[in-house]
Amino acid sequence: MNPELDIYGVFVPTVALLALVAYVVSALLRRLLDRIGFYTLVWHRPLFDMALLVCILAGLVEAADKVIL
């Protein structure tokens, strides 16, 4: 994985862009889980949401690593 991306002369860390994508995916997934009533099964919602974000980010980092190689 490239450590930085060049966006019009501004170097942006790749992980920062992946974190932004993970946040958007997580927000959509949280809204879906809330609509179907999944959170009634969850003990600590903020902890679950943070773990969900970390899992999505880890998956994106692994996927980006496989695609670039």
Written account of the structure:
- The protein has 69 residues and is mostly helical.
- Helix content is 68%, strand content 12%.
- The protein has a two-stranded antiparallel sheet.
- A hairpin with a 2-residue loop joins strand 1 and strand 2.
- Helix 1 crosses helix 2.
- The model has no long low-confidence stretch (mean pLDDT 92).
Average pLDDT for all residues: 92
| Individual helix count | 2
SSE ordering: EEHH
SS content category = mainly alpha
**Which regions are unreliable across 5 or more consecutive residues at pLDDT < 50?**
none
Q: What is the strand content?
A: 5-15%
Tally of individual domains? 1
Give the fraction of residues assigned to helices: 55-70%
- As laid out across the biggest beta sheet, the strand order is 1-2
Major sheet details: 2 strands, antiparallel
Distance separating the two termini: 7 Å
Q: State the total count of DSSP E strands.
A: 2
Rg on CA atoms, Å:
15 Å
Report the principal-axis shape: elongated
Descriptive labels:
69 residues; mainly alpha; two-stranded antiparallel sheet; 2 helices; 12% strand; elongated
